[in-house]
Amino acid sequence: MLTSSWQIKDPKVLLHIFFTICGLAPTTALWSYAPTIVGSFGFGRLQANALVSVGQWISVFLIIVAGFAADKTGRRGLVVLFGVLCQWTFMVAFRGLPDDSSAGLKFGILTMGTATCSWWHSVNGSWLSINASCPEKRAIRMALFIMAANCAGIVGGQLFRSDDLPYYHRGWSVIVGLMSTALFSASILAVLYWRANVSLRKSGTENGSMEEAMSNVQSEKTTLYQRQELPASLKANRKHVKNVRGSKFDATNEFLVADALDSQKPAQENCITALEPSMTDGGLDESFSHLEGNSPTTTETPGSHLSSNSEVYSIQAIVLSTRVAHNLNQSNLNATLVGAAIRIAHNLGLHKIESDPKICVETREGWHKTIETEVGRRCWNQLVIQDYFQIPFTGTYIIHPWHYTTSLPINCHDEDMMVREEETPTINSYPRTLSRIASLMPRLMDGLGPATAPYTLADVARHVARSDQDLRKIMRDAPRFLRVQTEDEADSFSWLPAARHSLTLSAADKIIMIHRPTLYHSFQLPALTRTRTTCVAAAMTIFHAYEYISKELTVPIWIHSAFCVTAAMVIGLELLFRESHVDDEARRLRAAMTVAAQRLRSQKSDVIAERGVALIDTVLGVEEDLVIKVMRLTHSDDQSLKSAQRDIVNNMIADNTIMAKFLALSPAVDGNFCLDTGGFQVDDWLGDATEWFRDGEPDFLNSFDMVYPYTSVD
Fold first, then answer.
1. pLDDT tens-digit map of 311-320
2. Which pTM value belongs to this model?
3. What fold, for 5-218?
């Protein structure tokens, strides 16, 4: 088995991790606050944002130069050391500038500081990876490396604080300290690798990595995997899959099968689940190595890239990347990778996994077959969910419902893989329900008509109403524990409250997505009033669920902040198109937006949350401008005043006035935004959920017992 002592005690790996955190933390801080800093030099907001991009363009060039130099010379350590030295020089220079220095001098040094930020990072990753003695160690190294980069983002988000304005003296002092530490660590690393090279030459070993040479010198023999011999049938099947590009799923990966054959491991380590994937044998991290174009076994081996070497671990890595990709502003990259993962799944035959009711998990062969099949189902199910939930934004989908036969993952516990009743909570309960919701999206898309000849608004509205009822039926039929809180659930399943809250968010968001084709029209056409009130109720449900998630300190995931953005758009339209802006309902809506903005502002390293705050600030500001414009109008009757207000809003949207205000607004993360709610207590709207639904409003969630998702029942 792979021991944990290597990861913890290897000094070079620890130095790489420590050095990465110290060296990258200033990068996160500068890329986030550089526009604010440049603006303090006397430049306007738009001009400051444009000027900051100069350093980033230079950084692109430097990254290419660093990679080229490292490949040509093979001196990755020197390239990294030089890169850190350059960054340290400009950081120290900027910190030493007098406060009254000229704007041009400050901008020049800051630009070079941002340009040299992290240009050595990719070479550092290559430096760490290429010195691994085996693919298993490389996988673990890269996993630690990625986690270190994420930790650096958390640290960097805390460097520039509002109480340190306007010059951020304390923040720059900390940056100088971090970069000095990084420079010292890089120097120590270079010395350690130099000594390893000396040992390599003395040992007479001309091939292999430096770690292998040092292992030879010290006569260390470490067994990373104690694999049992594979049965002849599995060997033959794996060879067939490699040759034919895998029409069957029986051989997912040698590591998976070998791991399953190890009877000493707990059963849950052999089953990679949708919510808690297994990290055994470095399989997941090995996938990320594939994503970077590195072979897990050799260097520059033909067919080692994920696009030509179909493996289930690549699919798992891509699926898992969705957890953070959107928050890190990598949505387009994630969508592209999901498309690639779907094709890899086709190559592996994951879309046509056959169910065999005769399999008995109590036998050794049946246990292995069940695990293999279940891993395939869960991977495919996640691809289907991600593909279908992109439909409202891309207007298309890749997986046609007619073209796959793989069933949902079974409702089971990983410990025994026995099929359970639907009302029995398991780790698969949530993704199974989510998959049923996702299955509505292709039908919704196809029901809008072909792109070249879309259906009329009346036909679309009828189709939307049918889809709305379909979703309500799915939620009525969902397991009760995902709809209603019980008294003993926290003791039995700690994840259940978070799953139910997330499902509430997702269901409300999907209601809005279903009504999206008619949503904008509903604010102007009385015939679509039900769509308007339904979406407003769904948006308030999202805000309410998000408030509970925030109060319970649930680990945030990207859908929480993303769905709040969706809700903010709906409430924003409601505020702009409503007739009265001073009644209690308008104050209630603005208070909900304010609370959501405060919660989003507290999220760190989350681009979606920052944009959500900017969106809410923009909408509330635009509403204020709208009220002023309407007050200046002179119309004899209410009807003409309503028409004039609609024209103003439509014009602001048509000429991108709102978009321009949003793009010009820097995301506020220092908590200094405050809305005057006219004496309305923001906690009032956080009371009983029944208060959200007025007479005449649709019972949005009541039809499937989710109006009271947080009340205890016997």
1. 888 898 898 8
2. 0.52
3. Growth Hormone; Chain: A; (1.20.1250)
